């Protein structure tokens, strides 16, 4: 009880201080502008331009389409791969796959509400990909209707796969299962995180065989929360004799994951990093959960950010949230601000809740998929290939692996500008 009271008082002071700091920064910027009023006009205009760009909200109205045809044209503009009956696009953040965004908070499973759209800032997406898939196919001059083969979470930006063939999904799933069996992470992501992963070198790859499992967070067992299972604990997760098939291990049901990651850039002054992460699973919020146990949380993550605390300037990972009353879960987002004041000022936001989830799905690996697709292409005689475009997006090796990756031109604007503000932009 005492800890909660102290935390509440500290957060009230933090909220008041952040608002005062914003007004102080604004007044200091205005005084700096007035100081240069007597200088030449070119210098005055450049300062005003710099001030206006720094004060502009990065995440205001992210959905810049007003009709279905506008969205279809945007998807056609973001095509990154088109060959072997596969079409890959880079979708904007927040765009739903089968239905528009739903802002209802699911109290029965808090992990499903890790990032809630703020309509007043981000805007409201009017349509989903399923609403415009026929228009998108018409713009592509296709003879058959498109099918969604693989798509990321609505709260991510990045790769979506389409195909005219319904059987293509089976080939894709088989290639992903092959990658998991080989412990080769097929899904690749860029993540902007708050925190510095300890004892890592920038640019060096690290691999880990870990797991994600669900634990009950209320006494009735009506809600569960994903937690990280370390490699050491995974080795002790042995079978129990005579146990039920759904709970036949010591730790209960655990999703094993092969994760490969590296730090692309760091800003020690702001304690932020750009992470390149490859994983075999994304269910149970595996990406957010894994990074939270590396003392880092993804910007815009309103759930796992509360597992990372700062004590004497050091990031530490806290234990999972335990609570007796699920009705109190609604107040989690209001009790503590995980972002530092410096980061908030750099991004021009008041809190972490005003940032879209900074996960960009930039790459996919399909082992030996081309060995299956090449004969199908020869049979169909459907040669719609732009060699110059696909030469930069497709990589072939001796195993006939297919790798589809977006380049920096297909990064979302808000993602790119966030990297600029935090001095993490390695793509410029």
Structural features, described:
The chain is an alpha+beta fold and 428 residues long. The protein folds into three domains: 2-55; 68-184 and 366-421, no CATH class; 188-238 and 246-354, no CATH class. The protein has 13 helices and 15 strands. The chain has helices at 2-35, 41-55, 68-77, 119-122, 129-139, 168-181, 231-235, 286-292, 332-335, 341-347, 369-380, 387-390, 413-421; strands spanning 79-83, 86-91, 147-150, 157-163, 187-194, 206-216, 224-229, 254-267, 272-279, 297-298, 308-311, 314-317, 359-366, 394-395, 402-405. The strands form two sheets. Strands 1, 2, 3, 4, 5, 6, 7, 8, 9, 10, 13, 14 and 15 form a 13-stranded mixed sheet that branches. It has a two-stranded antiparallel ribbon with strand order 11-12. β11 and β12 form a beta hairpin. α3 crosses α5. The protein starts with a helix and ends in a 7-residue tail after the last helix. 32% of the residues are buried. It comes from Dermatophagoides pteronyssinus (European house dust mite). This is Pseudouridine synthase RsuA/RluA-like domain-containing protein.
